[in-house]
Design brief:
single chain; 95 residues; mainly beta; six-stranded antiparallel β-sheet; two-stranded antiparallel ribbon; 8 strands; elongated
Length: 95
């Protein structure tokens, strides 16, 4: 029997649209079918984010749209039902 393993990979791409606005695309793959690190699953996610830096200060605002997929009903939707996909919208404030 092979020993348990897990795999995690991420690809980031950033493009500066201007001095104040940038675009980021991120792809993540996670496989842990043996439960070594997390919850015995495979997950794929694609994120599209913008980066907005106001003209004053060091504050950075990053709205983020994400699509998560798994081969089983791992995620939850807005009705608290299990589903194989999830599409959250969020944001990050960095200072």
């Amino acid at each position: 029997m092979p020993s348990p393993f897990w795999v995690d990979g991420t690809f980031y791409s950033n493009y500066a649209l201007s001095d104040m606005v940038g675009l980021e695309v991120r792809y993540e793959y996670f496989e842990d079918e043996h439960g070594v690190r997390h919850l015995r699953m495979v997950n794929n996610s694609i994120s599209v984010a913008t980066s907005v830096t106001p003209a004053v200060g060091k504050l950075q605002v990053k709205p983020d749209f994400r699509i998560n997929t798994a081969p089983v009903n791992y995620h939850e939707n807005s009705s608290d039902q299990n589903t194989p996909t999830q599409t959250p919208l969020g944001g990050i404030f960095i200072y």
